[in-house]
Amino acid sequence: MRKPIKLGLGAVLALTIGAGSAMAENIKIAFIDPLSGPFASTGSNGLKQYQFAADELVNKKGGVLDGQMFEIVPFDNKVSPKESLIQLQVAIDQGIRYVVQGNSSGVAHALTEAIEKHNKRNPDDRVLYLNYAAVDPALTNDDCTFWHFRFDANADIKMDALTDVIKETPEIKKVYIIGQDYSFGKAVAAAAVRMLAEKRPDIEIVGNELHPIGKVKDFTPYARKIVSSGADAVITGNWGSDMLNLGKSVVENGFTGPIYTYYAAGSGITAAFGESGKGVIRLISQGQINPPESDAAAAYIEAFEAKYPDGNIDQPRITNAIGMLAEAIKEAGSATDVVSVAKALEGMEYDDLFSGKVYMRPQDHQLIQDMFIGAHTDEGVTFDYDNSGYGIVVEHKVEMAGMDSPTTCKMKRP
């Protein structure tokens, strides 16, 4: 008969430590976006959506590979390209191989350039960048890189869908274009001018101007120019506080026509517009919230709102970034071999919770997906934003927008 073996405290600790070291390490994802300053609400709500998506789509299902869980690690970049590069280096020093960012194409350009240089110099420590909201077309055209994947539609794809709607709205004869003075704002303006000329050459552009990003406190002078121009519609790519302050000022100064926007929902914007935005604010976006795409989408939103009562699913494409990354890691069989993960992402088809099939175009790493144009309203709202009773209800749908759109990307692959 074998005698029971008694272990001393040191042996027990050694076994415990050994078992812990065998546990799968988390796959850390650096979230580099504004968590302070004028755009903090946008970044903070995005962070909540990433944390929730990681838990719901990956961690609650047992993680990936040998049980590795997704961990979202926040870094505050204050919407500064310089600060973003500092935070990127901190993340890399912590061994993080995946970066997500979305707010400001200026930041996105800085990150793509820095990551490209880092990956060339450090082939054993490469980093992959998942862009969920920075939509300057150049990022998937002349400035494309193998290490960058965009999960939002670029500014040209969105403008193509918006101008299709304007084309079919004969009462619009004069348009005012206004945006933030950086790469994205300039891209929106250029696309609007070009596409309106192609589709509705009779439309007169009565204003086309840029303003400093995040620095204008009073938009009254801009609003008065818009109203006095006789514009029937406004087009703006503004986001965050710049979107809210511009829109409120334009409405308060008597403008009643449609304001076509890229980012006029959630993060406090919907509640602030309230009744004043009804019949005025229009939004182009990925993902259908009202009505929900499916029962599964509705359940996901309900669960998110239960966990984050002050949050909004206003960037549903975040579920694609997390879900597709998880699938790519599974296909690659490794979370550290980012080259294999990137190759798995290329050409991937994925079932989007909020709009159906999506497709990562391999030639430029631009996600192709349905686009929705909706109106700010309190009628027919299943899920509101900001606990306001108001939401965005879909009026138009463009299937697989941009599927055949051209690209000048000449990607260099490792």
From TrEMBL:
Please state the span of the N-terminal signal peptide per the UniProt entry.
Answer: 1-24
Q: Which UniProt keywords apply?
A: Amino-acid transport, Signal, Transport
Residue ranges annotated for the Leucine-binding protein domain, each copy included: 27-374
Q: Return the InterPro entries for the record.
A: BCAA_transport (IPR051010), Leu-bd (IPR028081), Leu_Ile_Val-bd (IPR000709), Peripla_BP_I (IPR028082)
Entry-linked CDD domains:
PBP1_SBP-like
Report whether Cell inner membrane shows up as a keyword of the record. Answer: no
Q: Does the record's keyword annotation contain Transcription?
A: no
**Which family does the record claim for this protein?**
Belongs to the leucine-binding protein family.
What is the protein's name according to its record?
Branched-chain amino acid ABC transporter substrate-binding protein
Organism annotation: Pseudodonghicola flavimaris
